[in-house]
């Protein structure tokens, strides 16, 4: 069983590489892999069929009592096989359905992630693990819908909103369950005596779990997300919305049945919601013109019947629900895939526009008839057997059985009607058409769609194969020793048989009068749907938020800062005098001469920051504050932190200067009265913070944790630089989290910039009211070196370019030495990366024009590789040392090496990537005062040869482009938009004569280029 999970996890890792290599044909090896995983799971399934329940448990978070626990029973076996076998068929179908070219990577990878999550969900035996897998299925479903582009964005968000409600209720239910049962073990919790002894708690948890399951299985009033999700590709609908994600809700109901099958609230909610959903799903299906949305509402209806029967809670009901789950997975996945076949043939899914396909596509017609007949419950298909078992379970409910039975029969009449509408609308009632007029449909698609549907026919003649699996499902869902389940085709002349005959007769009458019937249902539709309701709720919340915004104006933060800082000052002035007599005395040597000098200098710099009207002056003064604080750290005897702080300050100021060129030169001038008020307030707050600092700091010895590190860190880690060993060994998980945040910050910058059009990020230069100023000094005539030195930038950077040829290698060597010595002396990956970033800064400043440094996609690759290396180091510690990020040591040629060195490599690369991204993206400038490019003649038109912010953001994702993209939703560039060739460049060398002859060299990143479309 654990091998099943490991195999699926391996597929999650391998799928991106397979997709890169094989494109849409990746479905073939993935289908084979799924069948292989199913075969791997078969020995476990055989044990379950023999009456045992195999369990595996690995420690995960022992301190929290959470284990990676798996347990296989009848319920888990059925849902595992559905996920794997239907998934394999859908992958085969996808090899012909998906378009050629890019875009298949996200599809296959997300599908595999979903399968992994689904199988882990149905086999989990830990409440925490179950909740995590539940949320993973929701996220995978969200991304699979959202990847459909613009049509899928709003539906994906609405789907996430509804399933988020279910996730919250399940989280509360899991928390309460753990609290009252005292265990995270799922099986132990479900069979606990708590449910019998505490009815109030039982009712609460039962309602919460029911709501969670109903959101995922699209039950009223949460049903709207499933039809809304039809924006996803047809293979996604065939797998997730017919056989997998909606079945997760059904699974949750069955899984918690041992605790709640006899709870009245559970019974009432599931039966009521299920039958209402079955009826309205059938009615709404008949309202539809889009055959795919019709199938979606039919899924809602069928899931309603299953939900209602699970709510009955008897052994017969659980067996009937499980049998219909199997039948529904077969016919509905096939029918969704048949919708794709029809769409490819007819070029549309609108029933009013589909031509008569019965003649040109007889095989497709036969498959569609079999699938719809199974869903309608026509003998001798498996759907007939499962539908009659549902009727039996409802009919046997005491007192209300007849009402429930009649409701299910009424819903089944609607089922027959929408099945007829599908067959007649798609194959019979359309306009005649020849085969040559139809689109292309692959035999692979038809074979894959037909396989699960056709399987319903032979299975109905070997019903005994379901006896043992259904018996084990009942044993898992209802505690005790259940009777053996025997599935039969013929039960004699029973009310269920009469009801089936009545449904067929009424269905035939409806078919004969179908034009009137379908016209009636087209008229008898609501003026809104579930998506409209959700949109209305969102708009109402937006209006409410705008109404409340009078109390919170985000563009004016002054009142909120005044309240929070004023409150802090009030607390300080009131509380410190009260507690001062009881405070311990201050430590010695807190007041030294260097401290006083630095305090005075920092105060002066802060006053300059507060009073300056020039942004440039303010930045210089702010940098002085940082440098003086760095000196303070050095005086305190922390060279490692000093070096880090110094480099961070340098890089921060450079980045601020890059952004500063996009801002006005001076701040807005406020009235003197307002400035005076703010000054007084600032002084009071500063005094309060000073008072708190004096009262709460410097009054204790070193902490026990600090002393532990000082006394034991060198011996445990083998390194004498305690700061570094804390960062990369003792608290490496914190560092990994901070590293991930840094990486996500860089990615977020790119993501935001790539969704805003170029004209909104960088307004045209002529719109910026800062015209270039004429030089007031007299220079030599045009063509001389002096003239070029004043009017052109490139002669002024050549000395710096020559300097870099010497200084650059020295900085690289210094960076390597600082990195290498970090375990024992001041240094490490972070500091070394900042020194390496200085090389990037020098390269950036040595360009006469605004050019990106390095390959366009290098920053994201560096960030991704760096974080991946850090995570890989943690996984190596988990596998080889038993704990994530556990440091390991090895001797090579007598020299000791630690795995934290590899972790530091990840830190180095990620920080380097973030700094490179910041320079390349934030430093873009094109204004009238600071032109960033040259005017060039292109196709007879003068254009500015400059990379602007949007173009630079796009190139971080897609490589060299001819210009900024206009997309805002992640669309990829067209082939002709890319630049793939480079010509020769003229580099600056020691023997350069560029200045002498007036020939500007090519800057870094600038070279003659060739567009793909021009080659």
Brief summary:
By secondary structure, the protein is mainly alpha-helical. Mean pLDDT is 83; it is low at 768-776, 927-932, 935-942, 981-985 and 1007-1015. This is DUF4040 family protein.
Main sheet characteristics: 2 strands, antiparallel
Strand order of the largest sheet: 1-2
**What structural class do helix, strand and pairing data support?**
mainly alpha
The tally of helices reads 41
Average pLDDT figure: 83
Keywords: Cell membrane, Membrane, Transmembrane, Transmembrane helix, Transport
Region (Disordered): 988-1015
Domain MrpA C-terminal/MbhE: 680-770
Transmembrane segments: 74-93, 105-122, 128-147, 159-180, 230-253, 265-287, 363-382, 402-424, 444-466, 497-513, 560-579, 591-609, 616-635, 641-660, 680-698, 739-756, 802-822, 828-848, 860-885, 905-924
């Amino acid at each position: 069983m654990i091998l099943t999970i490991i195999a699926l996890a391996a597929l999650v890792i391998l799928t991106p590489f397979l997709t890169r290599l094989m494109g849409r044909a990746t479905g073939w090896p993935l289908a084979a892999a799924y069948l292989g995983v199913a075969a791997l799971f078969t020995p476990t399934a055989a044990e379950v069929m023999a009456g045992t329940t195999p369990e595996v448990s690995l420690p995960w978070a022992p301190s929290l009592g959470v284990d990676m626990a798996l347990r296989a029973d009848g319920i888990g076996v059925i849902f595992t096989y559905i996920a794997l076998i239907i998934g394999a068929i859908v992958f085969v179908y996808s090899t012909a359905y998906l378009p050629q070219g890019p875009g298949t990577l996200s599809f296959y990878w997300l599908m595999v992630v979903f399968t992994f999550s689904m199988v882990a969900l149905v086999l989990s035996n830990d409440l925490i693990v179950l909740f995590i897998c539940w949320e993973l299925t929701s996220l995978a479903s969200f991304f699979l819908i959202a990847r459909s582009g613009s049509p899928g964005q709003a539906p994906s968000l609405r789907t996430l909103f509804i399933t988020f409600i279910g996730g919250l209720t399940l989280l509360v239910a899991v928390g309460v369950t753990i609290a009252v049962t005292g265990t995270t073990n799922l099986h132990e919790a479900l069979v606990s005596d708590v449910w019998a002894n505490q009815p109030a708690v039982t009712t609460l948890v039962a309602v919460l779990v029911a709501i969670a399951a109903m959101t995922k299985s699209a039950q009223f009033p949460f049903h709207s997300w499933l039809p809304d999700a039809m924006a996803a590709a047809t293979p996604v609908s065939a797998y997730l919305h017919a056989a997998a994600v909606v079945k997760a809700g059904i699974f949750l109901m069955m899984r918690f049945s041992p605790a709640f099958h006899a709870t009245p609230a559970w019974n009432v909610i599931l039966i009521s919601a299920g039958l209402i959903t079955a009826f309205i799903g059938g009615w709404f299906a008949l309202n539809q013109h889009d055959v795919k949305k019709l199938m979606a509402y039919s899924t809602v209806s069928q899931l309603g019947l299953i939900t209602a029967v699970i709510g009955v809670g008897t052994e017969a009901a659980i067996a009937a629900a499980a049998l219909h789950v199997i039948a529904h997975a077969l016919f509905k996945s096939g029918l969704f895939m048949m919708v794709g076949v029809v769409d490819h043939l007819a070029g549309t899914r609108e029933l009013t526009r589909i031509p008569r396909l019965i003649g040109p596509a007889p095989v497709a017609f036969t498959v569609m008839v079999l699938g719809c007949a199974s869903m309608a419950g026509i003998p001798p298909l498996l759907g007939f057997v499962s539908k009659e078992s549902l009727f039996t379970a409802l009919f046997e409910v005491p007192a209300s059985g007849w009402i429930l039975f009649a409701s299910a029969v009424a819903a089944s009449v609607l089922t027959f009607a929408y099945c007829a509408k599908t067959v007649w609308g798609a194959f019979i009632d359309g306009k005649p058409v020849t085969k040559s007029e139809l689109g292309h449909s692959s035999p692979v698609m038809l074979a894959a769609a037909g396989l699960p549907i056709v399987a319903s026919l032979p299975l109905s003649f070997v019903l005994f194969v379901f006896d043992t699996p259904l018996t084990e499902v009942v044993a898992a869902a209802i505690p005790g020793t259940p009777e053996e389940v025997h599935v039969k085709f013929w039960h004699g002349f029973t009310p269920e048989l009469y009801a089936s005959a009545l449904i067929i007769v009424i269905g035939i009458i409806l078919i004969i009068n179908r034009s009137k019937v379908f016209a009636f249902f087209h008229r008898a539709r609501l003026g809104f749907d579930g998506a409209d309701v959700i949109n209305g709720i969102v708009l109402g919340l937006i209006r409410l938020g705008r109404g409340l915004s009078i109390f919170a104006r985000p563009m004016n933060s002054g009142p909120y800062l005044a309240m929070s800082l004023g409150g802090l000052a009030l607390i300080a002035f009131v509380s410190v005098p009260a507690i001062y007599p009881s405070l311990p005395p201050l430590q010695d040597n807190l007041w030294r001469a260097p401290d006083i000098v630095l305090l005075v200098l920092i105060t002066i710099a802060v006053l300059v920051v507060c009073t300056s009207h020039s942004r440039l002056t303010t930045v210089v003064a702010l940098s002085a504050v940082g440098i003086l604080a760095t000196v303070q750290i050095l005086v305190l005897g922390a060279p490692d932190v000093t070096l880090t702080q110094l480099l961070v300050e340098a890089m921060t100021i450079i980045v601020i200067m890059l952004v500063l060129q996009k801002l006005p030169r001076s701040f807005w001038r406020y009235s003197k009265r307002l400035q005076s008020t703010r000054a007084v307030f600032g002084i009071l707050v500063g005094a309060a913070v000073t008072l708190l600092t004096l009262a709460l700091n410097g009054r204790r010895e070193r902490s026990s944790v600090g002393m532990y590190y000082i006394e034991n860190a060198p011996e445990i880690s083998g390194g004498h630089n305690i700061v570094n060993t804390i960062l990369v060994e003792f608290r490496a998980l914190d560092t990994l989290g901070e590293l991930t945040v840094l990486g996500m910050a860089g990615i977020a910058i790119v993501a935001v910039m790539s969704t805003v059009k170029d004209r909104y990020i960088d307004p045209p230069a002529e719109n910026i009211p800062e015209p270039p100023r004429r030089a007031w000094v007299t220079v030599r005539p045009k063509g001389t070196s002096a003239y070029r030195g004043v009017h052109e930038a490139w002669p002024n950077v050549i000395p710096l370019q020559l300097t870099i040829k010497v200084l650059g290698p020295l900085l690289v060597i210094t960076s390597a030495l600082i990195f290498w010595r970090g375990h024992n002396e001041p240094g490490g990956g972070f500091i070394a990366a900042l020194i390496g970033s200085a090389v990037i800064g020098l390269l950036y400043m040595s360009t006469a024009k605004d050019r990106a440094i390095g390959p366009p996609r290098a920053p994201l690759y560096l960030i991704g590789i760096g974080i991946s290396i850090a995570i890989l180091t943690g996984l190596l510690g988990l596998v080889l040392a038993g704990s994530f990020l556990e440091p390991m040591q090895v001797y090579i040629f007598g020299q000791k090496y630690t795995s934290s060195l590899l972790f530091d490599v990840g830190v180095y690369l990620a920080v380097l990537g973030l700094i490179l991204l910041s320079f390349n993206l934030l430093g873009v400038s094109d204004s009238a005062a600071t032109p960033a490019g040259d005017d060039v003649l292109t196709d007879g038109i003068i254009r500015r040869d400059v990379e602007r912010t949007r173009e630079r953001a796009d190139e971080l994702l897609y490589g060299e482009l001819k210009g900024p993209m206009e997309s805002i939703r992640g669309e990829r560039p067209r082939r002709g938009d890319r630049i793939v060739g480079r010509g020769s460049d003229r580099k600056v060398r020691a023997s350069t004569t560029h200045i002498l002859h007036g020939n500007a060299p090519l800057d870094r990143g600038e070279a003659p280029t060739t567009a793909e479309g021009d080659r």
